[in-house]
Amino acid sequence: PLPFSTASTLGALCRWGVYADLIEVDAGHDFHSAWADINLAWAVLRPGGVMFGHDYFTAADDRGVRRAVTLFARVKGLTVRPHGQHWILSPKPRGDGR
């Protein structure tokens, strides 16, 4: 664990060239926070890696985390697998430098 904000930590990991095979995103529950954290996490996720998160089903429903995750998956051509309150994206395609 790194005791910094998600944006600061993920930005630093990118600069340091540190990448991950598994990332949990537990962002703020609003769309913009979740969207930003998911996109930053994607940048440090290795090809073949898996990203998952929490709060997929909340009172905000399609206005918060679930909206951000669903839109991100659609843009990237991924599948979202809900599991209780968690969401899991299909593995990052190999050769995807985005």
The class by helix and strand makeup works out as alpha+beta
Counting DSSP E segments of at least 2 residues, the number of strands comes to: 4
Give the spatial strand order of the biggest sheet.
1-2-4-3
Low-confidence stretches: none
Classify the helix fraction into a percent range.
Answer: 25-40%
Strand content: 15-25%
Mean pLDDT: 87
Distance N terminus to C terminus? 25 Å
- Contiguous helical run count: 3
Q: Oligomeric form of this entry?
A: single chain
Protein name: Class I SAM-dependent methyltransferase
InterPro entries: SAM-dependent_MTases_sf
Describe the structure.
By secondary structure, this protein is of the alpha+beta class. The protein has a four-stranded mixed β-sheet with strand order 1-2-4-3. It has a domain at 22-89. α1 (6-16) packs parallel to α2 (31-44). It is globular, with a radius of gyration of 13 Å. The chain starts with 5 loop residues before the first helix and ends in a 9-residue tail after the last strand. It has helices at 6-16, 31-44, 65-76; strands spanning 20-25, 45-53, 80-83, 86-89. The model has no long low-confidence stretch (mean pLDDT 87). The relative contact order is 0.18. Pfam families: Methyltransf_24. It comes from Aegilops tauschii subsp. strangulata. InterPro entries: SAM-dependent_MTases_sf. This is Class I SAM-dependent methyltransferase.
Describe the SSE topology.
Elements: H1 6-16, E1 20-25, H2 31-44, E2 45-53, H3 65-76, E3 80-83, E4 86-89
Parallel strand pairs: 1-2
Antiparallel strand pairs: 2-4, 3-4
Helix pairs in contact: 1-2, 2-3
Protein name: Class I SAM-dependent methyltransferase
Pfam family, one: Methyltransf_24
